[in-house]
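dumping the sequnces here before i forget
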Amino acid sequence: MAALTPISRKPLGFVLPVVAAAGGLLGLFVGTANGSGLAGILIGAALVAAMAAFFILVLKNEGLARWIAIGGIALLGLLFAGVPGLVLGAVFGLFFWWLTYWLYEGRYRARLLPYLTPMQVLWHYTFRIICGLIFFFLVAPLVPVVWLSFNAQDFFTFTPEMLRFDPEGYSLKHYRDFFTNDAWQRSFKNSLIIAPIATVISVTLGTLAAIGLSQSHVPGRRAIMAILISPMIVPLIISATGMFFFYSDIGNFLENQLGLDKSFVGYVKVILAHAVLGIPFVIITVTATLVGFDHSLTRAAANMGAGPVTTFFRVQMPLILPGVISGGLFAFITSFDEVVVVLFVGSAQQKTLPWQMFTGLREQISPTILAVATILVAISIVLLTVVELLRRRSERLRGMSPG
Amino acid sequence: MSDATAPDGSVLAADGTPLKRSLARSLRLQKTRALLLVAPLLIFVLVSFIIPIGAMLFRSVENSQVADTLPLTVAALQDWSPEAGTLPEEPVYAAFVTDMIAAVEAKEHTKLGTRLNYEQTGMSSLFRKSGRRIKRLDTESGAPLKDQLIAVDKKWGDVETWATIKTHSVRYTNGYFLNAIDMQRTPEGAAVQPEDKRILLKLFGRTLWMSLAITCSCILLGYPIAWLLANLPARKANLLLILVLLPFWTSLLVRTSAWKVLLQQQGVINDILVWLGMLSDDGRLIMINNQTGTIIAMTHILLPFMILPMYSVMQTIAPSYLRAAKSMGATNWTAFWRVYFPQSVPGIGAGSILVFILAIGYYITPEIVGGTKGVFISNRIAYHISSSLNWGLAAALGAILLAVVLILYWAYDKIVGIDNVKLG
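..and the predicted 3d for all of it:
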């Protein structure tokens, strides 16, 4: 980053209109909610501009100004819209206080290059705001799900009690339902049976194949790669249809000719189908890790008398382990999150968690889905953290390995 | 004797064999070992994935049901042509009754009726009804079976019925593919379906259009984010990248249900707009169960697939190019448009193809938030597989969809290279 740009105080003729515009924007929303948008804009702009002028000209104490801004606007919010208004008001008060001093003290230029024109500065911040909105679009949809999962009512919408932050409006009953309801528990158990086994199969076969593919002379490498990646590319509905016919034949054979248990055969079918779907992810991540793998290490091991198996487990495996694990996590989440194939290949006995959610979303809408969704979000945060840590470790290892 | 040479001048390896042969052997050994490592997985994928899909696609042309169930009738119908407008002769009817008795015995006639019902409505009930009464026909006395059969159901006196049987008696048919593009197989060759039955081409068009719309909105939303990530210092970028990866790792159904919560008429977005007074209570927006819902939800779901490839391409663009352009007097816009943007096009291409491929085959999200107007061709395929049981048509639709996807896959391979796909 460039050296710190010297900052200077800006004239009131710049600060007040900008702050007033921000106040007007908020006023517009409050105004339309209470009948008149135009009055809202005017009052909001005047109020916020007056507050800023008061802070700058009279108060001259930034720390005290913060508490006045938060308290004052929160109080206004309380008058207009009760407890939710109080919370929003406090947030906006903090924002206006920050905005006023950010502009007045010229802090907005502190981290930018000194030679930027005002238009470039404006664009810089506009761009940041646009990006912020897109990030909001990416992450915000998950918030209401988590929030609503604590709903005391059987609704998919916010109740007035929830908005008032009334403890009456919140409960853990949907979580209780998830942990006590047989249908949910069975499907959760099914997911926990199917996903790990499918993952083990795809990781074992996938890692071996990735090691084979990474050797220097593999005939038909591109074609093999294309075939192995294809389960990721072929639309799921087509894979599911193909597997539906294939596995019903296989299933009939296993049940009738070998006399195997029907539910066992059902699990085998779903597990094999999911294993295929997870393979591309293992191949991709492990091949990516192997790109940075120094093959002279295996030669050195062989030179010192290690057999291929020892070399693999003692030298190669520890180095590519991060890639293998993150590939495995991808395979796991693919299976754990998969609906279409299990819908076609499995029978009611193999109903997995996503399947149960899918029927729930389509037919009887129960907020238990939201509780499950929250649990799944928590799981995905854990998985994401693990993958991120592994990636860092892998980068560190690669930085250390010679070559 | 490590660098010994043979009498003819060729280099020898340590064990005395010519070096060339020794190297070739070691290469062969290496190749075999590599192939042996790949083999288990390759066989597994081939057997349980590629071949099943091939077999499924084969169903789109396979059509032996008529010929298998009514072999004598099909043979007898050889000489008959529906163009003449006259009914087939007595031998055809006699052959049909014989076939039918055998079919009823094997309980095959209802399946045949269902099969022919895809082509002409009413066939299913016709075969069911005739199957019940076929044994009561008088085959001994030599009374014309033609009249007896027409007495069972008037439709047997209809040229149309026999024309349908004859048209679909071939063992390999293009009928399903014609159906898939809103045409039908008729005695005179391919013809366009009647107006009210033409829905599939429209559905293909809609699938393409909506996938394009989703891809475009992903580009619009993804580009600024990728740019920001690529130009921030690494630590901040990694932190922000988590915000991209979180939705990527979150279950598809969670995100779909989130959009259901947000978009429905009593949902969060409508509630907020009403609360702010921007909508009246009875003027709530309809954002779900239509195309809007599908496009919004799928843009959100597929956005990470656009951002990640774009980001990895933009990371490789040196910021000094932009500075150089500016120092030579380019405006911000010119510098971006003429210098930066062209270098980022591969990223856009990679992301777009990936998003488009994923979007075009989507099933779950359109099924939940798409209603009837926002569904894709995949939903139609699922319907034909699980509800109408017209597997041939489903296979034909799937084959067309797969062909589109494979062309795009090929393009992706050419542009990006399959091995360059990155995750996370």
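Chain A has a mean pLDDT of 85.
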